[in-house]
C-alpha cells in the first residue's frame, strides 16, 4: 500500500515477485489499486492490473476503483 501511494514501481514489483497478494486489502478493505486510483497513478495501476489486480472490489465505503475515477 505504501509503495503504491508513493508510486514506487520497483518496490511494488519486488513485493509482488516475493509473493505478496496483488489483491491484499487493508483495514478499510482498500487494495493497492484503490490507492493508485485515488492518487491518479496510472503507471502503478497499469502494473497492478497486469499482475491480476481486481477492478471491482468495494472498500468499506462501497467505492470501487472505477467509481474512484481510474482512467487510462
TrEMBL record:
<dbReference type="InterPro" id="IPR039323">
    <property type="entry name" value="ANKRD_45/46/60"/>
</dbReference>
<feature type="repeat" description="ANK">
    <location>
        <begin position="28"/>
        <end position="60"/>
    </location>
</feature>
<dbReference type="InterPro" id="IPR002110">
    <property type="entry name" value="Ankyrin_rpt"/>
</dbReference>
<protein>
    <submittedName>
        <fullName>Uncharacterized protein</fullName>
    </submittedName>
</protein>
<keyword id="KW-0040">ANK repeat</keyword>
<feature type="repeat" description="ANK">
    <location>
        <begin position="1"/>
        <end position="27"/>
    </location>
</feature>
<dbReference type="InterPro" id="IPR036770">
    <property type="entry name" value="Ankyrin_rpt-contain_sf"/>
</dbReference>
<dbReference type="Pfam" id="PF12796">
    <property type="entry name" value="Ank_2"/>
</dbReference>
Amino acid at each position: 500500500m505504501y509503495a503504491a501511494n508513493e508510486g514506487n514501481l520497483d518496490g511494488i514489483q519486488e513485493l509482488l515477485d516475493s509473493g505478496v497478494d496483488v489483491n491484499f486489502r487493508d483495514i478499510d478493505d482498500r487494495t493497492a489499486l484503490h490507492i493508485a486510483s485515488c492518487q491518479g497513478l496510472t503507471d502503478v495501476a497499469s502494473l497492478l492490473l497486469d499482475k491480476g489486480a481486481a477492478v471491482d472490489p468495494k472498500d468499506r465505503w462501497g467505492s470501487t476503483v472505477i467509481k474512484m475515477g481510474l482512467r487510462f
